[in-house]
Amino acid sequence: MPLNLPLSALEQSDEFISRHIGPCTAETTAMLAAIGAASVEQLIDQTVPAAIRLPADLPLPAPRREHEALADLKAIAGKNKINKSCIGMGYYDTLTPKVILRNVLENPGWYTAYTPYQAEIAQGRLEALLNFQQVIIDLTGMEIANASLLDEATAAAEAMTMARRVSKSKSNRFLVDSACFPQTIDVIRTRAGYFGFELVIAAVDSVKDEEFFGALLQYPNDRGDVSDLSAPIASLKAKGATVAVATDLMALVLLKSPGAMGADIALGSSQRFGIPMGFGGPHAAFFATKEAFVRSMPGRIIGVSKDARGNTALRMALQTREQHIRREKANSNICTSQVLLANMAGMYAVYHGPQGLRTIAGRIHRLTGILAEGLKRAGVAVLTHTFFDTLHIDLGARAEIVYLEALAAGYNLRRASAGVLGISFDETTTRHDVAALFKVIAQVTLDMAAIDAQVAAANPSLLRSDAVLTHPVFNTHHTEHEMLRYLKSLQNKDLALDHSMISLGSCTMKLNATSEMIPVTWPEFANLHPFAPRDQAAGYLEMIGSLTEWLKTVTGFDAICMQPNSGAQGEYAGLVAIRRYHASRGDAHRTICLIPKSAHGTNPATAQMAGMQVVVVDCDENGNVDTVDLKNKAELHAANLGCLMLTYPSTHGVFEEAVMDICAIVHANGGQVYMDGANLNAQVGLTSPGYIGADVSHMNLHKTFAIPHGGGGPGMGPIGLKAHLAPFMADHAVAATGSAERVNAGQGAVSAAPFGSASILPISWMYLAMLGGAGVKKATQFAILNANYVAQKLNAHYPVLYTGKNGRVAHECILDIRPLKAATGIAEIDIAKRLMDYGFHAPTVSFPVAGTIMVEPTESESQAELDRFIAAMISIREEIRQIENGSWPADNNPLKHAPHTQADIIADWDRPYSRQQAVFPLPWVAANKFWPSVNRIDDVFGDRNLNCGCPSMDAYAD
């Protein structure tokens, strides 16, 4: 009875642990009995090698109740000071329409979804992404756009490498206009160095007669200047350069497009289309180019295809080869988009429509014009003559006084250079703001009405003359009722974690708890500019600091770099730190990177980007790294060995017994060990990369530490480093990542903002605060329990491909479908599609072994949900037996026709199985039926007939 319990039990300080972990006590007992383990502890002893087990529990703070953790974080957030930001530099205050805030950003139906590899149950977000692509195509004047990249600076770096791919120039030089944003130049400088490109940073008109393989221009530029780039673009292209233009979507609502000026690539950030600044992210970068370059374009592309009934259906185009990852031949490792943010930006355009956007952009430009004209009349030197939203003003000796007075009045200006201040306006700027700033600068009152009547019109030659956003989707949903219903109609087409488990191996689709998500939209975290004065970011820095300390404890590292804003970026940042370390010791020649055959596709791609040569290491028949082959190759390349890239537990879902020996072999031959953090959810509290022997590792916060996948992003991939590598982590040219005494001072950046996508870090802070040391260890234990339960229950029906020496798997298991395919023609993709009829998203298909599926249930799923998934998989196996025994033809059965839609059920039926069997194959399916909105999609048609813009409404009607 509760009345007999001690106060310590009644206080429920650990209540969130049971909210996060699925199996209750009774279920745990039943599951242990099913797998033949006496206790969770015995299972862990059988699974995790004793040599790598931590000697003590993690010294993390005690767990906190949800409301207590929220209150603690709210107090920290309150230490941030939110001034009106006029800093600009690619980051602007914006107004997120509340219907989008509530129904997309704060809606688990959108933020818990996975990357849309299974397109039939992702038609909603695919349509939202297609809208985003159409916005980008229209505003940039280009022919094709992708579904977003990570941020503007890394998109610019991708443009550089794409230029090298497509340019016929033999030059090794890349031009960056000196008027580009400094954070972009910083990232490009880092990236160019390891590709061996010669970077030339100069005013574009000063190098007219020189040859480059590519060039990057900014429009409007860092000073706010707007000029027609047609001539310099033509001049560069005439000498073989591929020209990219970094630009601003809001400015392009009014201004002549990069495409109209002859650019080959257009890129930038969609942040000011309704995405809060968030101290730097996450924000969806956009990237557009000519259709001729589509197969060289980085990132994911949404395309229009057809389903089995001939109806219009959407999918990720060129998906089968993930066009951005080509292992050791790659020069991009991009595998993360910013889907959730791209969806928001696209919906911002849908909600406002072309006229609404013109009004917003026009208001921003008019307010800027009023300030510029008023300052000129007051005798202030305005250096920006043709502008959209940004002015640079020369105040000489008065600049610092004005800067401080503006600060006192609640405005953050930009210290652009000695004596020069920058002022940028945005959607939130009002006439009151203009008047207040004018008074601070000119020390007189502005006659707003008089100047408004006399502001000169923009030069017509700089304005766009073409119509944009003419598709009906951008001209229909302008009332909140219409927008709400449109968003709900799209959500209804998508299966996310709010419907059922998503058991994707290597992707860790765990609970994204509501209390973890709530702080993201607090104004104290959402509305801060990444380059705001650091004393205004005290709350952010405290939160990041405590999260850093917790992650050090969890991973066993001495330092953490928070800058990488995806796992792939973390890989790159880690290898860059290794390259810098070797160079500091006179070992720049150490460029050999050993990578097991089982590695993620991003691993060899990242090594290539870091200027390393990949040497592949074999795996044995059990899926483990072949230590003999590793030793031979490490010794063969000892003079030049840079590192080993290792995933642990292995990508095959097993704790390799020899992992410490593997690390020792690499170290003995002069290399460093990079550990891929994709499978960290099987380590936390039991072991750690640092304890095992890794020198650097990235952490997928969107996997292990509860940041949601958002339909394909956002992600965060900070890295942990041992002390000897800490001096070589990324810094930032605009805003330092630490104190003046920081060991990494001056190291080039890898992402646009100093702390990556800082506004989602509160999610991981809350996760660790509420679970505490005991909770994160228990989460790992139950991730392993759940995986072994699924493996045990399914092994008789689908052989588990790899296990450890005691027959256990780690946190995921690989089911071998190849014998079934050989016997019946039923492939892993058929099982994936048939699972949709049972209400489940498929596990990971054909990775890391072709012809298999990889299941990771995570710790958050209860036995009841696991049993439903197991029942579905067993039922599908029984259906395959109907093909084996000849009851159903190999080409006419529920698996080959899956998924089934409502259209199938109302159509004429001549199949050898019943409608009931098709859509309600088990009794409980009907109680929570998820109806795919399209039939199986024709992948080949979509790739051969590439169309990546919004189809006409007639296409859907047909």
Question: What does this protein structure show overall?
Answer:
- The chain has about 950 residues and is α/β, with parallel strands linked by helices.
- The protein is about 40% helix and about 10% strand.
- The chain is built from 34 helices and 25 strands.
- It has a seven-stranded mixed β-sheet with strand order 2-8-7-6-5-3-4, with helices on both faces. Strands 16-22-21-20-19-17-18 form a seven-stranded mixed β-sheet, sandwiched between helices. Strands 11-12-15-14 form a four-stranded antiparallel β-sheet, with helices on one face.
Main structural class: alpha/beta
Question: How much strand content do the residues show?
Answer: 5-15%
Distance between the termini: 64 Å
Task: Compute the average pLDDT.
Answer: 95
Shape: globular
Strand segment count? 25
Q: How many strands, what sense, and barrel or not for the largest sheet?
A: 7 strands, mixed
Rg from alpha-carbon coordinates: 28 Å
Query: How many helical stretches?
Result: 34
Oligomer state of the chains in this structure = single chain
| Helix proportion | 25-40%
Q: Which stretches are poorly predicted, pLDDT < 50 over at least 5 residues?
A: none
Strand order of the largest sheet: 2-8-7-6-5-3-4
